[in-house]
Amino acid sequence: MTNSKSDLSALFDSFNSQASTYEHRTGGSNRRVVAYAVPMLTGLPKSPTLLDNACGPGYATVELLKAYPNARIHAVDVAPEMISIVDKVVASNNWNDRVETAVMNAMSLDFADETFDASITNLGIFFFPDPIMGAREIYRTLKPGGKAVVTCWKEVPLLPIMHAIQAIVKPRSVPIAFPTLDQWTQKETIETTLREGGFETTKTYEKEVMWWNNGLDEAAKGFADKFKSMIGDQWTEVEKGHILNATIQVLKEQGNEFIVESEGMIGSQQVAWIVIATKKDKTGL
Predict the structure, then answer these.
(1) What is the pTM of this model?
(2) Distance from first CA to last CA of the chain, Å, rounded?
(3) What is the C-alpha separation between 120 and 199, in angstroms, rounded?
């Protein structure tokens, strides 16, 4: 299976330009997925060598060091601005002796075979132009018996809210769709991709996480920024200029359909697939 960049092109190309607003746009949901997934990596050595693959702002790196403070971690991403963010996190926590970062293509990792005890690719594999090639690189760089955590969304994030916004900004237009993301909502897609990458043993879990932002205004900005990043050049700049006000209107008038409120926070439920894939050890198990 190969992605032609089609409906994912805007998202892929936005990683550099919108790296600094990543947490705001994702409402912390991506971070919560990996925080849940890391404890599922059992049976690792006390001082493992780990890969935070397509690392984004380094959420997996942070969670891995909480669980394995003596780990050696390589955090890599194709977007230099994402790596710049990780570098700042590493420096501020004095992790330079434990974390090494690099700008790197996940479909052609610059690591030797059998380097890592475990690897995490959190909400990234569906962006790869060739996800199977990416899965093969994950497999190749794991040690025998090593484990990979790979995640994707079970539902296209925030899509019902996007459709409500679209009905205001572009009434009577065909509801916006993301065919490739839709394909990845089926767990067979991620499982098949990993099997074709070389893994024979996979276990798939479902996890609900929340998208949160502080108050209606910040939530509206977060939703609007997320929507803009996803639609890319499918809408004109004039149309995109109306998204924020339309988002505020949707949250005020239809909020009960899409969001929950708690202690001043505005949230939306999302669901992720978490797959644990294990590479055969030397005994073939």
Answers:
(1) 0.92
(2) 27
(3) 14
